[in-house]
Design a protein that fits this description.
single chain, alpha+beta, Rieske Iron-sulfur Protein, Naphthalene 1,2-dioxygenase Alpha Subunit, Chain A, domain 1, seven-stranded antiparallel sheet, 9 helices, about 25% helix
């Protein structure tokens, strides 16, 4: 391979320039599917929770017909926020002037509005946001013309359902908040290759998976991670290989740009949600889930093990990379792209960085 044929990593400006981050915030973040919450938060009609995308204050609510809806969290009268946190509401009543909306978003009433000549409440409605339920997880997209999630991430719904057939009864067991002093893309890249795993993640590499079987392949705007579980006598937690045809496997589905479903051996579902704070700061939320009636102690112990080992190890890695990207001595190096894929290849980073470049440069 000649020097001109080498695939080089992205220029440091993609990770260090606040202008690039603002371009992503006003573009990429607003036109892609973003994690909002879980259906367990909105089981009954009237249940709601707030969330944000690209700095926009939003909320999700289940209406009286059982349909999931999402809206910008702003009254159409004089722009006051309608709801805070999580809760239950039979009607949506603005705390500023008591303008009242149906759960469908339509204005129902407002004090003294009948005295206003020409006032037509049927013309006033909360601004809706596209929302989809995906294996019990709720995603939203500010782009009303965006393709459905099944087109963005082909096959993922079916594959994830096979690995976690009990997804409809999942409950959140634990949330782990992980602040990282790096650009969100540095953290996502670190997640999207296992070239570094054997050297940096001894517990994960010897007590969870077999690194030599690890591979990552693109699947639409998804990166699919697959590997075998470690030998049972070396596993760091108990699993039942007969529980499910996939109980002896590990798989992960990274959904571009900032969410991943990850199924540990034993059909243990956990998730990553990257929440960019600035051009050089991101918070990663790790979610851990268990079906109703399951053994939560195993999940909590595994979450604790993960936080103390793999997560802690990754924090030091990504923050070191961010410091290096700011160094005047760094020159963009070539990616190790093995045409056969495998654990010691960065072919997944090549794909990921093409999406990053496209998002930043248009």
């Amino acid at each position: 391979m000649t020097k001109s044929q080498l695939t080089r990593s992205l220029d440091p400006r993609y990770y260090t320039d606040p202008v690039v981050y603002e371009s992503e915030r006003s573009g990429l973040f607003r036109r892609t599917w973003q994690f909002a919450g879980h259906v367990s938060q909105v089981r009954a009609p009237g249940d709601y929770f707030t969330f944000s995308i690209a700095g926009e204050n939003l909320f999700c609510i289940r209406d009286r017909e059982g349909e999931l809806r999402a809206y910008y969290n702003v009254c159409q009268h004089r722009a006051h926020e309608l709801v805070k946190g999580e809760g239950h509401a039979k009607l949506l009543v603005c705390p500023y002037h008591a303008w009242t909306y149906e759960l469908t978003g339509q204005l129902r009433s407002g004090p003294n509005v009948a005295k206003v000549k020409g006032f037509d409440r049927s013309e006033i409605c909360l601004t809706s946001v596209r929302v989809e339920e995906f294996c019990g997880f709720i995603f939203a997209n500010l782009d009303e013309h965006a393709a459905p999630m099944d087109e963005w991430y082909p096959g993922v719904h079916e594959e994830l359902s096979a690995f976690v057939p009990h997804w409809s009864s999942l409950q959140t067991v634990d949330w782990v908040e992980i602040p990282e002093s790096c650009n969100w893309k540095v953290s996502v890249e670190n997640y999207s290759e296992c070239y570094h795993c054997s050297l940096n993640h001894p517990t994960f590499s010897t007590g969870v998976v077999k690194p030599e079987t690890y591979d990552i392949q693109p699947q639409g705007y998804c990166l699919r991670h697959t590997t075998e579980c470690q030998n049972l006598d070396a596993m760091s937690y108990p699993i039942d290989l007969n529980a499910n045809p996939h109980a002896g496997s590990y798989s992960s589905w990274f959904l571009w740009p900032m969410f991943s479903f990850q199924v540990y051996p034993g059909n243990v579902l956990n998730t990553y949600h990257w929440r960019p704070m600035s051009h050089d700061s991101v918070t990663v939320w790790r979610g851990w889930y268990q079906a109703e009636g399951g053994c939560t102690d195993i999940i909590r112990d595994l979450a604790l093990q993960d936080r103390r080992t793999t997560v802690e190890e990754d924090i030091h890695l990504v923050e070191s990379v961010q410091r290096g990207l700011n160094s005047a001595g760094y020159r963009t190096g070539p990616l190790v792209v093995d045409p056969d894929g495998g654990v010691n290849s960065e072919h997944s980073i090549k794909v990921l960085q093409s999406w990053m470049r496209e998002a930043a440069d248009g």
